[in-house]
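Sample entry (263 residues):
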Amino acid sequence: MSWMFFRDLLTGVNKYSTGIGRIWLAVVFIFRLLVYIVAAEHVWKDEQKEFECNVKQPGCENVCFDHFFPISQVRLWALQLIMVSTPSLLVVLHVAYREGREKRHRKKLYVSPGMMDGALWYTYLISLIVKTGFEIGFLVLFYKLYNGFSVPYLMKCALKPCPNTVDCFISKPTEKTIFILFLVITSCLSIVLNFIELSFLVLKCLIMCCLQKYSKRLQSSACECHDLRYVECGVIAAPPLLQNCRSDLAIGASQRGETKPLF
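Predicted structure, serialized as tokens:
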């Protein structure tokens, strides 16, 4: 299986991610994708051939293997990587839509197509929620399918066409258990990073909204001058009529000061 598409996808998403999002991408690429390609695929390479039961009844081993492993553990791991990485494609597609819109209108519609604001902020938030949901869902599915996160070395099977209860042995159970625990740890780390990034984005948005409301209140209070208002953004001055009244009063006062008493 070729993973070049996911490498290009993760590289594209890295341009529009936050600092916490870049850490998540590093965890996915180094500790999950590379470990899967380099080591995990080889550990589960011939799992069905190496699954043995202490009976030579035709079809017994196949039935028991299908019962204990309805889907291969390594293929479920690969499916999890695909589903977790796909929501990030929403952000890349949204940025591409913004760039295409600017080209069609032939003018600057955004400060930057990749800037995290407006609808792109909601797209990024939705992708985080979907990724977290997939991570939790696959961990629960993994636990339910295989009755835990460990691989036993011995399983007992009493399904037909087995003549009686037979013992079946799994190859490399300890090594597989270590890789599965590594998968669970990295999945939990990814969930924690997603929650931190989600909280960071929501908290940042709330702080920005509060600052905007506070600045609007300051501007509205600064534009008030008793009962008379001179409504012009950024300019605070007295109306011309009030200025004329003040000048007339000043002239009258000066004239009264110059008059001398008769006695």
